[in-house]
Design goal:
The protein is mainly alpha-helical. It folds into 3 domains: about 5-105, no CATH class; about 120-265, no CATH class; about 275-305. It has 14 helices and 5 strands. It holds the Pfam family DUF247. Keywords: Membrane, Transmembrane, Transmembrane helix.
Amino acid sequence: MRGSMHSIQRDMIMLENQVPLFILDRLLGLQIGDPDQKGLVAKLTLQFFDPLMPTDEPLTKSDRNKLESSLGYATTFDPLWDQGCLHCLDCFRRSLLRSELQPKPIPRAWMKRWSNANRVADKRRQQLIHCVTELREAGIKFKKRKTDRFWDIKFKNGILRIPRLLIHDGTKSLFLNLIAFEQCHLDCSNDITSYVIFMDNLINSPEDVGYLHYCGIIEHWLGSDDEVADLFNRLCQEVVFDINDSYLSPLSEKVNRYYNYRWNTWRASLKHNYFGNPWAIISLVAAIVLLLLTFAQTFYGVYGYYKPH
């Protein structure tokens, strides 16, 4: 049956189909004659789900080896133990975030419970940043960042650098399950959710998608840019999220500060209206020269009137 492996990958990535990893380790260990082996299923998971990666920048061999060697396991199963993967979806998520390559401090459980209790699914509280069209009007430029870490976004000197994102027919299901996992698991960070909401804020229309595609940031295999915009706008419906608990909040503050500075908007408007093409530049230069000549003629006329030869 053609395409069966793709269907199996999409089924195995679903949150409701996850089996605890220690069970899979035991079953595989019994099959190969080594009941005490641990970590082999995690390594196989990274290889099996590789086609679902939302980027076409391949993971380097050294990074893959570091990631596989860092997936350790405890002697007894503890679902809240941070050093071991819970299931295949958790392993794949860690491979996306490189969480073991760049460990992050995790708040205490009672702090996260308090934070979760005060979060609401409100679109007004999920606004991290303005859309692409509005940011461009403020003079912010977009460039592709060459890295396989699709979530690693940078902003400096008015340039927002976003890694390339590959969107295919399995991207929606992948992000939905990753977001659902982050929403359900108490001690899990919300990095994927933060990234998706950030992109949802950037993309409000097919024109936004088209410009990001022009910049090389978004590559999609869907029918149209409108489908991509609709995908992101639907991914974060009813998602509980707090903008203060996002790794992109500091970057968003920098972008919004740049956006709110009026001089940047005026400069971008001047460049767009008068420096958008060579003919506009020639017209502007001609107008400036004509204005200077008119001023000089007026000056010498007045000067000659008051101080004749």
